[in-house]
Amino acid sequence: MSKNPLINALAAEVYITGVASFMFFAEKYMSEEPDTIFAPIFMLSLFVLSAAVMAYIFCLWPLKLYLDEEKEAGVKLFLQTLMSFAAFTIIILVALLFA
Predict the structure, then answer these.
(1) What's the pLDDT score for residue 33?
(2) N or C terminus of the chain with fewer C-beta within 10 Å?
(3) pLDDT digit string (tens) for 26-37?
C-alpha cells in the first residue's frame, strides 16, 4: 500500500469503518427479510475479501522490501504498521468507553 505505516493503518481503519457502517445500516433495512442462503454466502465472501484487503494493506510493501533483500526494513515497516493499527484501535476503544 504505502511505505508510511500511519497511512497503512489509517487505510485499514477506513476500510473497517466502511464495512462496519454498511453492516450497521444494512441491518436496519434487511432485518425484516426472511433468511436465505445468500446471507451466509455474503458473510463468508465479505470475510475473505476483508482478509485479502488487510493482507494487501499490511503486507504489500513489507513483503516487497523483504524479497528485495531489505529484510530489516520490511520487518520494521510491518511492525510499525501493526503498532500504528494497534494505536488506532486503542483510540477507538477509549472513544467507545467514554462515548
Answers:
(1) 66
(2) C
(3) 877 776 667 788
